[in-house]
Write a structure and sequence with these properties.
By secondary structure, the chain is α/β, with parallel strands linked by helices. The chain folds into 2 domains: 100 residues, no CATH class; 318 residues, 3-Layer(aba) Sandwich (Aminopeptidase). It contains 13 helices and 19 strands. An 8-stranded mixed sheet has the order 7-8-10-9-13-17-14-15, sandwiched between helices. Strands 2-3-4-1-5-6 form a 6-stranded mixed sheet, with no helix packed on it. Helix 2 links the parallel strand 5 and strand 6. Helix 11 packs across helix 13.
Length: 448
């Protein structure tokens, strides 16, 4: 039988019992936490009535997870989807989940798993392929350990992946100390092979006047510095460059779709290490902008490197700044690992982002820039500290610190986990893309 003659098996997806044809009413379904499934050689029936009462964000998010799970249940064959669906869901989430189920990170495993031969046919193949390419790159980069991936290796990986971008600026050494003193200070305790680096990527072809800066926190490994983390707290710190990885993946998506925007990508790349050269608590450092910052905690390093990059972006008079960072444990305490928080200084922009998050099923959840907490950053001996003086509201005070450098430019700050753990839908554990589909839709909406 030729490939063209291979039988294509339908996957019928229902959102209520009423949608299921009478001929299937007596079929026994296997029950899972969020869906029911009946599978035969002729047809796969998927009943999603268990999630039908969720809001649009959670339904779309679950649809991606269910796509992953069903791909694993369909061992062989070629499939297509009959989608009965509902008005508030997007079938593309199912297809993306199906695609992501193929991901493995086996570069450092002696024995590789066999690749799945299961296929699904649909009209969104190019779009899903491009999104998956960015997801897979982000996951690969985050999953690579810090003994192999340092600041320069992140930079080189970005250059290789971003074929439609040119390096407009690359700063290290004495020039970094002079022009980006906070980035230099955070990275000064690292070995020479892990020296700190600031870089800027610019699209090779661009005519738009709409200027958008993406800024990624790229701490290749975070010991916490002299305020050293515990062993448990340090165990996942190879993922502390997850903001940079997500920004690179997002930049690639923007270029893949040739969006009419002037997109600039800034990466702040350091290793926050411990040595006799490391910055100390109580050190006072002058930022690129000129403010004097007291180091209240060397483990609050991400906001320092972002501050200098934000100042650089502001000097270029952008229409929008987006930064992405694995910035605070406080955000994870509030939101868990699946839902990144975001902060925004423009209410209309924030509402638009929330709406796009719901429609895409790619969660971003707003937390407030609660100005009344800004006094927690006060310093007796400098302009302000890099960390609040309270054990509460840490994600907010971190965002308020960054806002001091933003001024009145529209700005979105995303505080993400960049990591996922095994769940009821997937056994995958590792680096994760978060929020980039929602941000992509926002950038697409901003075209001239």
């Amino acid at each position: 039988m030729t490939s063209k003659q291979i039988k294509k098996i339908p996957i019928s997806v229902f959102f209520s019992d009423d949608q299921i044809p009478k001929i299937y009413k007596n079929i026994i379904f296997d029950e899972y936490s969020s869906y029911s499934i009946s599978k035969s050689n002729e047809r796969v029936l998927v009943n999603l009535s268990k999630i039908s009462n969720l809001n649009s964000l959670q339904k779309n998010y679950k649809l991606l997870l269910i796509g992953q799970a069903i791909k694993k249940l369909c061992k062989t064959g070629s499939f297509f989807v009959d989608y009965y669906g509902c008005k508030k869901t997007d079938i593309k989430n199912f297809y993306l989940g199906w695609s992501l189920a193929d991901y493995t990170f086996e570069k450092y495993k002696s024995k590789k798993k066999n690749k799945s031969e299961v296929k699904i046919l649909h009209e969104f193949e190019k779009e899903i392929r491009l999104i998956s390419e960015s997801y897979f790159f982000i996951r690969d980069l985050i999953n690579t350990p810090a003994n192999i991936l340092g600041p320069n290796e992140i930079f080189q990986s970005a250059k290789k992946f971003l074929k439609n971008f040119a390096v407009a600026n690359s700063v290290s050494g004495k020039k970094l100390e002079k022009n980006f003193p906070l980035i230099a200070a955070v990275g000064q305790g690292a070995d020479k092979s892990k020296k700190p680096l600031f870089c800027e990527f610019k699209q090779k072809k661009n005519k738009s006047k709409k200027k958008i800066f993406l800024i990624g926190k790229g701490v290749s490994f975070d010991t916490g510095g002299l305020n050293i983390k515990t062993g448990n707290g340090m165990s996942l710190m190879k993922k502390d460059m997850g903001g940079a990885a997500n920004c690179i993946g997002l930049a690639k998506l923007v270029s893949d779709y040739d969006l009419d925007v002037d997109l600039r990508l800034l990466l702040c790349l350091v290793e926050n290490s411990i040595s006799k050269k490391s910055i100390r608590p109580s050190d006072i450092i002058k930022s690129r902008e000129g403010n004097f910052i007291e180091i209240g905690d060397t483990d609050a390093e991400g906001r320092l490197i972002l501050a200098d990059a934000i100042s650089y972006a502001i000097e270029n008079k952008p229409d929008l700044i987006i930064d992405m960072a694995t910035l605070t444990g406080a955000s994870r305490v509030a939101m868990g690992i699946e839902v990144p928080s975001f902060f925004c200084n423009d209410d209309d922009l924030a509402m638009k982002l929330i709406d796009l998050s719901q429609k895409t099923g790619d969660p971003l959840w707003q937390l407030p820039l609660w100005e009344n907490y800004s006094s927690q950053l006060s310093s007796a001996h400098a302009d302000f500290k890099n960390i609040g003086n309270s054990m509460f509201g840490g994600a907010i005070t971190a965002a308020l610190f960054l806002q001091k450098f933003v001024k009145d430019i529209p700005w979105i700050h995303v505080d993400l986990m960049a990591w996922t753990r095994p769940n009821k839908f997937s056994s995958y554990e590792g680096g994760e893309a978060m929020g980039i589909r929602t941000l992509f839709e926002l950038i697409k909406d901003m075209q001239n």
